[in-house]
């Protein structure tokens, strides 16, 4: 059971909250110009970070307000709780757990190019190339984050 | 055909109104142990859900009707016989006796609606949304602690504060009315479950204490 510190209500049990997925996924600046692939990536593709992850939470049983949270997906350590609309705070020193194949780019949760950016190591037999996800059609201007 | 002739006006309907846990009344009485723990369903109340920015002009108008708006989580504002519970930064629950309802001669809902006017926000009559349970006695806190993760110790949960949380895994607004008395506001559809859940939690106190 996580003990989550709601900005309005203080520490409450995890069961009072609802998870809102990855934070800082901006709405595309020109949705009409996106092709189906890019639109699907904006809608459905999210990072699967191993380590510090910015995510949205809703205190549904309490004050019913949304907020952002930085949480370590390995240790469940809650590093920061900050309001919606504010940029992601600087993270603490990366811990040793960040050695997987997940995206570790510092801005991986702040850009709109969320996709399967699997940086496959050379040991992988099937070299997964994420060529189609390197486009930048879904980037939004600075400050357009939720 | 039901005899609808008797149901003229809202006061006719008032006669046949049943509270959500009325079928548990005998069980609540049987499960209570006077001097240790007493559970009963509270009377009907007039409740209004208010959403308004408390710092705005319309927020000030609403506050003048209710006698203030709570500023932060846990606070209860209001006057004698009327309390305003904090549900969120811009969301409040106004609780008053049943007679305050417009259909019974009061003017609570109407005056709140007038105070809001055309400003952004809402005033909704929620009188039938929730029922109330009155839990009191020296063991009241022990019963609640079986299903509520909050710190209910008097040093942090003082009389006159209200918190929206979970009791027995259902959403409940918990108001501490006295040193040893609590008022629970579950939604009407949860009244049966919560009533039986509290009875179950009270059962051990009806038995002789094991030395």
Order of helices and strands of chain B: HHEEHEEEHEEHEEEH
CATH superfamily of the largest domain in chain B: Probable tRNA modification gtpase trme, domain 1
Oligomerization state: heterodimer
Helix- and strand-based class of chain B? alpha+beta
The mean pLDDT of chain A is 75
Termini separation of chain B comes to: 61 Å
Summarize the structure in words.
The complex is a heterodimer of chains A (146) and B (211). Chain A is mainly β. Chain A has a domain of 86 residues: Folate-binding fold, CATH 3.30.2270.10. Chain A contains one helix and six strands; from the N terminus they run βββαβββ. Chain B is built from six helices and ten strands. Chain B has 211 residues and is an alpha+beta fold. In chain B, the strands form two sheets. In chain B, strands 1-7-10-9-8 form a five-stranded antiparallel β-sheet. In chain B, strands 3-4-5-2-6 form a five-stranded antiparallel β-sheet, covered by helices on one side. The longest helix of chain B is centred in the last third of the chain and has 16 residues. In chain B, helix 3 packs antiparallel against helix 4. Classes of the chains: A mainly beta (146), B alpha+beta (211). Chains A and B meet through strand 2 of A and strand 8 of B.
Features:
heterodimer; A: 146 residues; mainly beta; two-stranded antiparallel ribbon; 1 helix; B: Gyrase A, domain 2; five-stranded antiparallel beta sheet; 26% helix
Summary of the model, kept short:
Residues 95-141 of chain A have low confidence and may be disordered. Helix content of chain A is 6%, strand content 22%.
How would you summarize the topology of this molecule?
The complex is a heterodimer of chains A (146) and B (211).
Chain A: E1 3-6, E2 10-13, E3 18-22, H1 36-44, E4 52-58, E5 66-72, E6 78-82
Antiparallel strand pairs in A: 1-2, 3-4, 4-5, 5-6
Chain B: H1 9-15, H2 25-31, E1 38-41, E2 45-51, H3 57-66, E3 76-79, E4 82-88, E5 91-97, H4 108-116, E6 122-125, E7 133-136, H5 140-144, E8 162-167, E9 170-178, E10 181-186, H6 191-206
Antiparallel strand pairs in B: 1-7, 2-5, 2-6, 3-4, 4-5, 7-10, 8-9, 9-10
């Amino acid at each position: 059971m996580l003990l989550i510190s709601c900005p309005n209500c203080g520490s409450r049990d995890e069961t009072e909250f609802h998870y809102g997925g990855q934070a800082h996924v901006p709405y595309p600046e020109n949705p009409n110009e996106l092709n189906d692939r890019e639109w699907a990536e904006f809608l459905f593709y999210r990072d699967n970070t191993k380590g510090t992850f910015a995510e949205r939470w809703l205190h549904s049983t309490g004050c019913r307000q949304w907020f952002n949270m930085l949480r370590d997906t390995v240790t469940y350590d809650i590093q920061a709780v900050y309001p919606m609309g504010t940029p992601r705070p600087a993270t603490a020193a990366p811990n040793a757990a960040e050695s997987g194949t997940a995206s570790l780019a510092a801005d991986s949760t702040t850009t709109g190019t969320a996709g399967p950016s699997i940086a496959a190591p050379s040991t992988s037999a099937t070299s997964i190339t994420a060529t189609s996800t390197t486009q930048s059609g879904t980037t939004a201007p600075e400050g357009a984050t939720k | 055909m039901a005899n609808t002739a008797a149901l003229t006006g809202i006061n006719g309907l008032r006669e046949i109104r049943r509270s959500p846990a009325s079928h548990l009344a005998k069980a609540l009485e049987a499960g209570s142990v006077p001097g240790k723990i007493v559970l009963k369903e509270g009377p009907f109340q007039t409740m209004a859900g208010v959403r308004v920015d408390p710092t705005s002009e319309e927020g000030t108008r609403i506050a003048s009707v209710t006698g203030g708006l709570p500023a932060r989580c846990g606070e209860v504002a209001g006057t004698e016989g009327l309390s305003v519970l904090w549900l969120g930064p811009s969301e409040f629950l106004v609780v008053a006796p049943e007679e305050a309802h417009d259909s019974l001669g009061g003017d609570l809902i109407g005056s709140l609606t007038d105070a809001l006017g055309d400003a952004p926000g809402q005033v909704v009559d929620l009188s039938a949304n929730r029922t109330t349970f009155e839990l009191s006695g020296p063991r009241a806190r022990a019963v609640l602690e079986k299903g509520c993760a909050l710190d209910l110790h008097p040093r942090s949960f003082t009389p006159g504060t209200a918190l929206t949380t979970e009791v027995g895994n259902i959403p409940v607004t918990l108001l501490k009315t006295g040193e040893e008395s609590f008022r629970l506001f579950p939604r009407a559809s949860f009244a049966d479950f919560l009533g039986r859940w509290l009875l179950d939690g009270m059962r051990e106190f009806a038995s002789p204490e094991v030395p």
